[in-house]
Model the fold of this input.
Amino acid sequence: MENVDESSILKPGTRIKPQVDAETAKNILLKTYGIKVLEICELNSYDDKNFLVFADKNIKNPNINFCADGYVLKILNSFDSKKIAFIEGQTALSLYLNNQKIVCPRQLQDINGKYYSFENENIIRLYDFIPGKILGDVPSCSNLFYHAGVFLGKMDSTLKVWNFNHDGYKNHKTLWMLSSVPHLEEFVNVVIDEEKRGMVEDIIDLFKQKVLNHIDEFPKQIIHGDFNEQNVLVNKNAASGDYKVVGVIDYGDTQYSCLLFEIAIALTYMMLVTGDIETGGYFLAGYKMVRLIPENEMNLLRICVCARLCQSLVLGLYTHQFDQSNQYLLTTQAAGWNLLRDLYTKTDKEVCHIWNETADEYLTQSYK
Done:
């Protein structure tokens, strides 16, 4: 198993969300980026504060060109703001992906030419806003999930081929990494229902035995780590009317980790869109067009998806205690418990059969 720096994992009871309102954000933008704000609205977020802003054309910063689509101001939580090496690694990754022509937010320099700075105890960064819809807001269909798989496969392959790495990722750990699943034991009491809590505890044990005890056997590289329906950008094809994945945002969970975990996390959120296990088959059909998934990894995907669902469900409930007006934190709850129970009551073989059969049928009937 991996050695984990315990000080880098969030502990229960720690409040870390920035206490920044829209007016304060306006002042930060003017002082730090030379941007006078015309409009501003807060975006959904777990532990950070994010604002979409539209600016006056007269920007007093030679490092920034006016963007009519707007900008996103990201104010990092106080806990992760201490991880300077990782922040620098994220910056390097953002610049690298832009150079590789992968659609992702472009990080901008402040008036001093820096890619990040501090506002009290919080790191602040600014990005161009990428227009478009997110996958979770458009009608779902098999083609959309297939192309999501293709996109992620290509991005993972790009990172592997060019061997991107950065020292900031070496010892970086967070509570949201799948390797941190054992830490859910510290939070699981937030689940009141005994049957649900028992299911979560059993999944944690199975994940430790079947996955973490063999983690050194799986290939690793830099991964996105949070390929979910809120982070995947899509555009509509004017001719066909179909939506296709064109980009991915939010690189806050990028990490050096197993490709197995990358696939499992993406699978989780694609299936949550519909609530159906079959949806995973469409996604895997696309991903496998770019990168083959070894049999030993396929056989562990069910338990890895279950573990990710447990993270989302438990940590969503826990964080909601401190921010009860933020319904975004409960996004997973209804569909999540149903999907978790469905996967939990099936075997690895049964779930893989559903995914493989769905993928085969889709590829047989479809012309890409």
User: Anything to note?
Assistant: The first strand starts at residue 37 and ends at 43.
